[in-house]
């Protein structure tokens, strides 16, 4: 019998009597579990619970809240293999990557268990002898979090952990395609003794749940990771009650390989950045600009590495690239490849769907002779495609890299220190991987410029998003 996972609001598991949603393995298309389908009423009840829990949770000391987070961290660490397997089953990424994500996700909990103790205020010298100017940071209040399917654990912990550490309570909705890891994380939060109402999870109609939270003036902060389209919609709705908003949206990351780059390092960076999670990451390399003098050497090295990547079910040993999340995702990659090839791009390796599997598998693909008008050079592919084009001059490539409404991650490979700084500073992106294809880490600020979003997650920057600044003017 298919296992039914329940939802959790106000310290109670519920949902047996609701309609059900099937959770489908992207590797096999089999139904692996079911979750209840919550709607508006459940979303409102979640806010009722979070609001009721807010006062007592926010009044705990940062050390007490940190202790709950430490216990949660330990329980997740003990279960990292179980969580990793569940994640692979529902999301598709290879098991070693899934376990890596659990560790990464847990790193945010550990970091914020500590960082909550360092929410400092200020005393500012006054202009009047009988006045004192005090500045205090306070939790923003109830937080609503909406997360995507591509990182079923990390996108949750990097929102929930700083919110909890700051003294906020949380209502959250994971993606319908990947709710199981999220529910398991909440089970462990309950086991860690986190009081009822502090964390509440619902899954179901995203528009009903999102709207209920947007319209509710008790929710003081919205944090979202997902598509730019939905991010804009949520921001517009949040304006009605003037919520604080953090948005981590789409990217379109350029990779710049200069003529003085260490090409082995550059290829390793592209492989790390591009093929993680089958290319379904908002910081994935999406377009590669290689100096014309090193293009052939770069392509040869890249193809050598890509040839060795094994595509398959993420649960199988040795799999490097799992299935894409669904048919639409596969169609998008195929369309990007076809568009480029029809306009004269050269297929260096890959280029096809893998038809003899039940899941949505696509070959790791490299295209050369690509130009800036092709769809793949303007739109996030979210799949295992590396389009390679050439450039002649530094100014030219900076201009082309910045020619996008997105501004999340970018990558530069060069062994020249002055050039490295010059280019990093000229790129209009929130993240620059300088000779580094894997910049994500819990202590660093993750987030984008322009239409890639607002706010930062990670490090001390990430906890600021859950705080209000209060100024107390004291007359002596
Ligand atoms: N920045 C990033 O990390 C991500 C970027 N993307 C980009 O977005 C594209 C589309 O992916 P997709 O999964 O559809 O992204 P979405 O933005 O649709 O989904 C992200 C989250 O938002 C929820 N959601 C969707 N519509 C609403 C709504 N009206 N109100 C409230 N919540 C809503 C989803 O719920 P539900 O699952 O129930 O639909 C999910 O929890 C990808 O191809 C990729 O380009 C996608 C995922 C992550
Ligand atoms: O695609 C995303 O939004 C998640 C980014 C993963 C990371 O933290 O590196």
Automatic annotation (TrEMBL):
<dbReference type="Pfam" id="PF00171">
    <property type="entry name" value="Aldedh"/>
</dbReference>
<comment type="similarity">
    <text>Belongs to the aldehyde dehydrogenase family.</text>
</comment>
<feature type="domain" description="Aldehyde dehydrogenase">
    <location>
        <begin position="16"/>
        <end position="472"/>
    </location>
</feature>
<dbReference type="InterPro" id="IPR016162">
    <property type="entry name" value="Ald_DH_N"/>
</dbReference>
<dbReference type="InterPro" id="IPR010102">
    <property type="entry name" value="Succ_semiAld_DH"/>
</dbReference>
<dbReference type="InterPro" id="IPR015590">
    <property type="entry name" value="Aldehyde_DH_dom"/>
</dbReference>
<dbReference type="InterPro" id="IPR050740">
    <property type="entry name" value="Aldehyde_DH_Superfamily"/>
</dbReference>
<dbReference type="GO" id="GO:0016491">
    <property type="term" value="F:oxidoreductase activity"/>
</dbReference>
<dbReference type="InterPro" id="IPR012394">
    <property type="entry name" value="Aldehyde_DH_NAD(P)"/>
</dbReference>
<protein>
    <recommendedName>
        <fullName>Aldehyde dehydrogenase</fullName>
    </recommendedName>
</protein>
<keyword id="KW-0560">Oxidoreductase</keyword>
<dbReference type="InterPro" id="IPR016160">
    <property type="entry name" value="Ald_DH_CS_CYS"/>
</dbReference>
<dbReference type="InterPro" id="IPR016161">
    <property type="entry name" value="Ald_DH/histidinol_DH"/>
</dbReference>
<dbReference type="InterPro" id="IPR016163">
    <property type="entry name" value="Ald_DH_C"/>
</dbReference>
């Amino acid at each position: 019998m298919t296992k039914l996972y329940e939802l959790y609001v106000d310290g109670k598991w519920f949902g047996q009597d609701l309609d059900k949603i099937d959770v489908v393995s992207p590797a096999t298309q089999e139904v692996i579990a079911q979750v209840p389908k919550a709607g508006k009423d459940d979303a409102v009840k979640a806010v009722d619970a979070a609001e009721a829990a807010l006062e007592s949770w926010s009044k705990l000391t940062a050390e007490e809240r940190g202790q709950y987070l430490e216990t949660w961290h330990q329980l997740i660490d003990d279960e990292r293999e179980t969580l990793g397997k569940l994640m692979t089953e529902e999301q598709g990424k290879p098991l070693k990557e899934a376990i890596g994500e659990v560790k990464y996700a847990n790193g945010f909990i550990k970091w914020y268990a500590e960082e909550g103790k360092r929410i400092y205020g200020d005393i500012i010298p006054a202009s009047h002898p009988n006045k004192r100017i005090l500045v205090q940071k306070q939790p923003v209040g109830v937080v609503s979090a909406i997360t995507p399917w591509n990182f079923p654990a990390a996108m949750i912990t990097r929102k929930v952990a700083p919110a909890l550490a700051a003294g906020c309570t949380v209502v959250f909705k994971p993606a319908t395609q990947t709710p199981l890891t999220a529910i398991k994380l909440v089970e462990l939060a309950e086991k860690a003794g986190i009081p009822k109402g502090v964390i509440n999870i619902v899954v179901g109609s995203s528009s009903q749940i999102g709207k209920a939270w947007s319209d509710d003036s008790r929710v003081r902060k919205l944090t979202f990771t997902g598509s730019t389209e939905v991010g804009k919609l949520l921001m517009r709705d949040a304006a009605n009650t003037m919520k604080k908003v953090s948005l981590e949206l789409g990217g379109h990351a350029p990779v710049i390989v200069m003529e003085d780059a260490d090409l082995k390092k550059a290829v390793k960076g592209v492989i790390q950045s591009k093929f993680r999670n089958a290319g379904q990451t908002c910081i994935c390399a999406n377009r590669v600009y290689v100096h014309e003098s090193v293009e052939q050497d770069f392509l040869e090295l890249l193809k050598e590495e890509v040839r060795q990547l094994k595509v398959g079910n993420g649960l199988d040993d040795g799999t490097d690239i799992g299935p894409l999340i669904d048919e639409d995702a596969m169609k998008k990659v195929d369309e990007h490849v076809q568009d480029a090839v029809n306009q004269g791009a050269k297929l260096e390796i890959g280029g096809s769907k893998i038809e003899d599997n039940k899941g949505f598998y696509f070959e790791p693909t490299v295209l050369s002779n690509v130009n800036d008008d092709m769809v793949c050079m303007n739109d996030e592919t979210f799949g295992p495609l590396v389009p390679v084009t050439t450039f002649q001059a530094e100014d030219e490539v900076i201009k082309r890299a910045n020619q996008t409404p997105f501004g999340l991650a970018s990558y530069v490979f060069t062994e020249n220190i002055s050039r490295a700084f010059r280019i990093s500073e000229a790129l209009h992106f929130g993240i620059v991987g300088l000779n580094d294809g894997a910049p994500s880490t819990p202590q660093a600020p993750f987030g984008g410029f322009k239409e890639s979003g607002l706010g930062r997650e990670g490090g001390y920057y990430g906890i600021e998003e859950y705080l209000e600044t209060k100024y107390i003017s004291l007359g002596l």
